[in-house]
Amino acid sequence: METDFVAWLLSRLPADARLEVPPGDDAAVLRSPALRRTVVTVDMLMEGVDFVLGPDVTARAVGHKALGVSLSDLAAMGSRPEAAVVAVALPKRGGESLAQELHAGLASLAAEHGVTIAGGDTNSWDGPLVISVTALGSVPPGAAWRRDGARPGDLLVVTGACGGSLLGRHLAVRPRVREAAAIAARFPVHAAIDVSDGLSLDVSRMMAASGTAAVLELAAVPIHPDAVRMSGLPGDGRSPLEHALGDGEDFELVLALEPAAARQLVAEAGRPPLDVSVTVIGEVVEGQGLFARTTGGGREPLKPRGYVHDFGN
Amino acid sequence: METDFVAWLLSRLPADARLEVPPGDDAAVLRSPALRRTVVTVDMLMEGVDFVLGPDVTARAVGHKALGVSLSDLAAMGSRPEAAVVAVALPKRGGESLAQELHAGLASLAAEHGVTIAGGDTNSWDGPLVISVTALGSVPPGAAWRRDGARPGDLLVVTGACGGSLLGRHLAVRPRVREAAAIAARFPVHAAIDVSDGLSLDVSRMMAASGTAAVLELAAVPIHPDAVRMSGLPGDGRSPLEHALGDGEDFELVLALEPAAARQLVAEAGRPPLDVSVTVIGEVVEGQGLFARTTGGGREPLKPRGYVHDFGN
Q1: pLDDT tens-digit profile of A234-269?
Q2: Mutate: best of A38, A45, A92, partner B, most B CBs <10 A
Q3: Which of A159, A236, B201, B291 falls between 20 and 30 A from A276, CA-CA?
Q4: How many residue pairs from chains A and B have C-beta atoms closer than 8 A?
Q5: CATH number of B87's domain
Q6: A96 and A224 share a domain?
Q7: Contact B89/A139, CB-based, under 8 Å?
Q8: Could you write out the DSSP letters of every residue in chain B?
Q9: Last residue of one domain, picked from the residues A109, A139, A169
Q10: What is the CATH number of the domain that holds B217?
């Protein structure tokens, strides 16, 4: 926590009863909710990789996304967001106005979801913009939604619709925080993951972690209008379904539940407090891998598609 | 949390009873210690600004420092480190071996201080190495050492000795975690800060936060042998005392305590469990600003020196 600029940012943060020691000291001190676990996740976004600043992509949008992806991770654990800390490397040229915009994007989404910004580290350099957000949430003991708890016989459901996020939703992330809370309050969820790298890839990760296989009903996969639009762009060459299965950055939730619970969830979805559609997209079966249901009622292997990170060598 | 390389890192992490859900899920779940507050701090280090990788500066040393500076912040709050999460941007060329070295440096220091690595986000790009560490600690309610609690009449003490950290200690950070725990267990500390930007600058920050002034006994300031060595380098032109007052990155602790407590602390220091020297360097008085005691027993203004961060404009 350093200097006048950070002091300026801190002065704009609302007071929060969860902070025993507010930002501005060597560290912040949080009153952890009694009898709840602490959930923690971190994500880093880099200019030129995760975004390209320009007329269409403001630093405010980057601040929003940087917090949004971490809140999506907290939602995918069935946890309630509490606090976040932010580290940034700002380009020296224009760094201060960039920081103000970043802060506006962070602060707005934080306020929407009741998250207190508990601290930060602001640096400048001759390199591109880098922002790292660590989000802290809370959940009752044993209640976190793991990705390894899917069981044969469960149905798989997804919130909202997938595909085509590059047309804007990849920045304007809407983390399913309230939806996760509404579901966690009423439904026993066996496993959960958020769709960050691609619906089929993220489902396959849940299956690998759970030691199970999934059979997807491809005709049931909810396709976002953006996936249809992207498919229609000149030279795209991919179907709306392919976009829905592989684009990623949808930040929807995939959940595994017992069939009765899944059907009840689908029936209750689409009205408050669960203000999003929920769709059954397949079932969990014994074995390993990912399959698509065939028209004859059989199954055929489905290759998981999505964004695979590359670490060089 | 992504892909095979992160999976490899995770497989090397020791199991930890504090983790209800270990790294590898959307987020980690920590069993927060009962009846303790959560302390959180984040620091980001950037290649070319905070370090220059080369024969003398390995990625292992960078990993050690990245965690070390955050642990020093936790120590300066009188808190016990519990967990850390790490986000990195790796250069594509050589990224994997860099990541392994970084991890080795992090893991070694984490093990030394009982810190569990609870998660991370590993990215690669064409830019320089960036690493951001968020450290979580715990402290009893109301017991955190704030920087705004110094009172007129308190004595100021510092652990160890300051100056010349650029000769190596700025990387080989030894966070005063055990020393802070030993002090917190026995002494009522009114205020604390770690020496990151410069002894005189960090003392002046404690005074500004506390609404008090400090009068330093310059002859008493413990000068590190490295400060003497740097002062003797051709063209240096600064005295060992100037190095001690302004170099920073010493990661020692400055504490404000009542005189009797301070003197008792000094008397007990230097043997287990408080295995570091502690020296009285001045006193807290009413007013504002930073002063040096003159030979006649008066005082004269002392300009705070140290590293001031620049955010561009």
Answers
A1: 999 999 999 999 999 999 999 999 999 999 999 999
A2: A38
A3: A236
A4: 258
A5: 3.30.1330.10
A6: no
A7: no
A8: --HHHHHHHHHTSPP-TTEEE-BTBSSEEE-PPTT-EEEEEEEEEEBTTTB--SSSS-HHHHHHHHHHHHHHHHHHTT-EEEEEEEEEEEESTTHHHHHHHHHHHHHHHHHHTT-EEEEEEEEEESS--EEEEEEEEEE-TT----SS---TTPEEEEES-BS-GGGTTTTS----HHHHHHHHHH---SEEEE-SS-HHHHHHHHHHHHT-EEEE-GGGSPBPHHHHHHHTSTT----HHHHHHH------EEEEE-HHHHHHHHHHTTBTTB-S-EEEEEEEESSSEEEEE-TTS-EEE----S-------
A9: A139
A10: 3.90.650.10
Q: Is residue A313 part of a domain?
A: no
One domain, residues A72 and A206: no
Q: In chain A, which residues have their Cβ closer than 8 Å to the Cβ of B38?
A: 29-30, 32, 38, 136
**Do A161 and A96 fall within a single domain?**
no
Q: Which of A94-98, A134-138, A217-221, A300-304 has the lowest mean pLDDT?
A: A94-98
Q: Tell me the backbone φ, ψ of residue B149, rounded to 5 degrees.
A: -105, 10
Model confidence band, residue A312 (pLDDT cutoffs 50, 70, 90): very low
| Predicted confidence (pLDDT) per residue in A111-135, tens digit | 999 999 999 999 999 999 999 999 9
Decide if A38 is inside a domain: yes
Query: Is A32 touching B (CB cutoff 8 A)?
Result: yes
**B90 contacts chain A (CB < 8 A):** yes
**Is residue B172 located within the same domain as residue B265?**
yes
Domain that holds residue B46: 11-139
Give how many domains chain A has, as a whole number.
2
Same domain, yes or no: A131 and A163: no
Which residues of chain B are within 8 Å of residue A44 when distances are taken between CB atoms?
87-89, 121, 123, 130, 132
Residues of chain B with pLDDT under 50: 1-2, 311-313
Judgement on whether residues A27 and A161 belong to the same structural domain of the protein: no
pLDDT of residue B24: 87
Q: Is A100 on the interface with B (CB under 8 A)?
A: no
Is A101 in a helix, a strand, or coil? helix
| pLDDT for position A313 | 35
Contacts with A120 from chain B: Cβ below 8 Å: 42
Which of B9, B18, B42, B122 is the best mutation test for A, with the most CBs of A within 10 A?
B42
Specify whether A132 is located in the same domain as A11: yes
Is A312 a member of any domain?
no
Of A38, A48, A310, the CB nearest to B32: A38
With CB atoms and an 8 Å threshold, state whether B141 touches A20: yes
Are B162 and B250 contained in the same domain? yes
Which chain A residue shows the shortest CA-CA distance from B119?
A: A41
Please report residues of B whose CB lies closer than 8 A to that of A5.
Answer: 309, 311
In a domain, A167, yes or no: yes
Distance from CA of B296 to the nearest CA of A (A): 35
8 Å CB contact of A73 and B41: no
Residue finishing a domain among A104, A139, A174: A139
Per-residue pLDDT, B2? 44
pLDDT of residue B5: 58
Put simply, the chain B residues between 222 and 281 with a CB less than 8 A from any chain A CB are: none
